[in-house]
Design brief:
Oligomer: single chain
Helix content: 25-40%
Largest sheet: 8 strands, mixed
Number of strands: 16
CATH superfamily of the largest domain: Alanine racemase
CATH topology of the largest domain: TIM Barrel
Distance between the termini: 38 Å
Number of domains: 2
Number of helices: 10
Strand content: 15-25%
Radius of gyration: 25 Å
Structural class: alpha/beta
CATH class of the largest domain: Alpha Beta
Order of helices and strands: HHEHEHEHEHHEHEHEHEEEEEEEEE
Length: 409
């Protein structure tokens, strides 16, 4: 219900309303010990506005779980769109002992090149050739060598020809990674035979080099599948057909990046020996969309914390409200891709607002104005960019501020 509709509905309830004053009651129940501690920290040292928190201890646990699944014979590739902060990526890469990144956005690609001059960067989607041109125009001269450290993702012969023309125009060498369709049906080379023409183009052009293939398979997410599952074997069978085509062209696949997986599916491939490069990002911080079977040992590490602006001890617009709407809190901001996590019994806002959102609760919740409520983002990649610097929590204390990437640049 929108704010205007809510206010209009209150007129029809005249006589049954009790417009209670805002409460200044002493803080009480509502949060468990974990969130009560965060609440106290933010009231004492927070900026008094919505913030994004990262629990670094939980984050490290999740990184260790990912790297244990990847093992020592494969490369773990951190997904930048899901971890959009240089400081956050530094922490992940150091803990995971990796220098491999997957990037989905041109400004992030330039930031990665500037901030991680020793990184190997695989594009996570086929970018318009104009975006590639922008990358080269903005690339700062330094230690990062795009000719050897960027793998451009190519999904068709037509796009390959566009990149070939750009390579000739700028006089730059390019490494080409092929997007292959392993059953998601979201584009890419659909059959190994289609890849043969692209391989011929690269073979004839000294500026182009085959870097590998990338096959994404999130359609396996809901299957609770193991490696032996028929759907997984179908993915690997399709993948193997493309690898065989590359081998038949005279290129050794063992020297290439054979990328696949994502946070949802990475653990399926612990015993797989076909792919040698596995990507994951959101599993590091665990937004709610990643509360899935293969991530059940991961811990939520990412939270939105927002102050309470107002409190009505009694619901001002309902004469006989249900128990979970007995009182109303207004929080600072709202309408995020997020779900309330503490107090735990709180549901969706009565109506959505980016300014101040009304949250209904039961009488068992006893929080005060300037206390905080906590939400878990449903995703990390865009929501993390909406709050300015990330605030880290380490050993139960507010620790550092980590700037996030800019969407343009």
């Amino acid at each position: 219900m929108r704010r205007r509709s809510l206010l209009a509905s209150s007129v029809g309830l005249a006589g049954g309303l009790l417009w209670a004053p805002f409460s200044r009651a002493a803080p009480g129940s509502g949060h468990d010990a974990y969130f009560a501690r965060l609440n106290s920290l933010l009231k004492a040292r927070g900026p008094g506005r919505p913030v994004m928190l990262i629990d670094t201890e939980r984050m490290r646990h999740n990184i260790d779980s990912i790297t244990a699944s990847v093992g020592t014979e494969k490369t773990y590739r951190a997904v930048v769109k899901s971890l959009p902060s240089v400081k956050l990526l530094e922490a992940v890469m150091a803990r995971a002992k990796t220098r491999s990144l997957m990037v989905f956005h041109q400004p992030f690609l330039n930031e990665a090149a500037d901030s991680f001059p020793d990184a190997d960067v695989l594009l996570g989607k086929p970018m318009p050739v104009a975006a590639a041109r922008t990358f080269y125009r903005k690339l700062q001269r330094g230690r990062f060598d795009a000719a050897t450290q960027v793998q451009w993702l190519i999904d068709s012969v037509d796009r390959l020809r566009q990149y070939q023309a750009l390579s000739r125009e700028l006089g730059v060498a390019m490494r080409i990674n092929f997007e292959i369709d392993v059953g998601l049906f979201r584009g890419g080379f659909s059959e190994p035979a289609a890849l043969a023409a692209a391989l011929e183009i690269i073979e004839e052009d000294p500026r182009l080099e085959v870097a590998g293939v990338m096959g994404y398979e999130p359609h396996l997410t809901g299957l609770k599948a193991e490696l032996s599952h028929p759907a997984v074997q179908s993915v690997l069978g399709r993948y193997r057909g493309f690898v065989d085509t590359i081998r038949e062209s005279g290129i050794d696949p063992a020297k290439l990046t054979l990328n696949g997986a994502g946070s949802h599916t990475l653990k399926i491939y612990e015993r797989d020996r076909l792919m040698n490069d596995l990507a994951a990002g959101s599993g590091v911080v665990m937004p709610t969309d990643f509360d899935t079977f293969h991530l059940n040992d991961h811990r939520p590490a990412l939270f939105i914390a927002t102050p309470i602006l107002k409190r009505y001890l009694e619901n001002p617009v309902m004469a006989d409200p249900p128990a979970n709407l007995a009182q109303i809190y207004y929080i600072y901001g709202g309408y995020w891709k997020a779900k309330m996590v503490s107090p735990p019994s709180v549901g969706k806002p009565i109506y959505e607002s980016t300014n101040q959102s009304p949250i209904g609760t039961g009488v068992e919740v006893d929080l005060d104005i300037d206390d905080y409520m906590f939400l878990r983002p449903t995703q990390s990649e865009f929501v993390m960019l909406q709050f300015g610097d990330l605030l880290t929590v380490t050993d139960g204390e507010l620790d550092e501020t980590w700037p996030v990437f800019h969407q343009t640049g």
